[in-house]
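Query structure, 194 tokens:
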């Protein structure tokens, strides 16, 4: 009995010590380091103007009006709902997925006044795994450029230049493809970013 109580005391002490370290000291240390070294990233990479939050560079949001570049479709909740992040989980043989993608392709071509043989980028008609991707491919942005320029009454070359300005390169120079952050591009179009 004496050994059992001693072991129990040691076990409780170990659990309490680990709880204090892993639930208190470690999170506090990480928070302090993050706030000190890169506070903008640690707080969600928020885009703010005059004290108002306009969005996050890391989480996609919906833009439906013709005057804006449109993001990837979202399968997160009712669309771009960060609390319901996730994909559709439909496989490549799913008739529902095939029909949805076909409809998205037709809608994309019609909205952007594209010919029936124009190849539509995959990111224009399929959701990302999280449903919250803030980026679109450069090809997707360039196909939307004439529509945005026409609706806004802007010179297409000027809009194309904005797309180039907000194009991010490959990570580490080799990973991924060039991409455009939709929120930052749309805010620049609205003149919100200075």
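Result returned for the query:
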């Amino acid at each position: 009995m004496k050994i059992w109580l001693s072991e129990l005391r040691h076990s409780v002490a170990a659990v309490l010590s680990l709880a204090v370290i892993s639930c208190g000291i470690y999170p506090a240390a990480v928070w302090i380091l993050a706030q000190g070294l890169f506070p903008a990233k640690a707080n969600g990479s928020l885009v703010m103007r005059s004290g108002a939050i306009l969005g996050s560079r890391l989480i996609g949001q919906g833009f439906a009006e013709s005057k804006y570049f449109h993001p990837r479709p979202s399968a997160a909740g009712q669309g771009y709902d960060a609390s319901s992040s996730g994909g559709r989980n439909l496989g490549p043989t799913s008739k529902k997925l095939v029909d949805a993608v076909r409809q998205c392709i037709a809608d994309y071509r019609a909205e952007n006044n594209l010919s029936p043989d124009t190849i539509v980028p995959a990111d224009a008609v399929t959701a990302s795994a999280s449903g919250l991707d803030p980026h679109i491919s450069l090809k997707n942005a360039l196909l939307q450029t004439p529509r945005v320029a026409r609706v806004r009454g802007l010179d297409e070359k000027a809009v194309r230049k904005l797309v180039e300005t907000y194009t991010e390169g490959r990570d580490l120079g080799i990973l991924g493809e060039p991409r455009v952050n939709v929120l930052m591009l749309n805010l620049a179009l609205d003149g919100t970013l200075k």
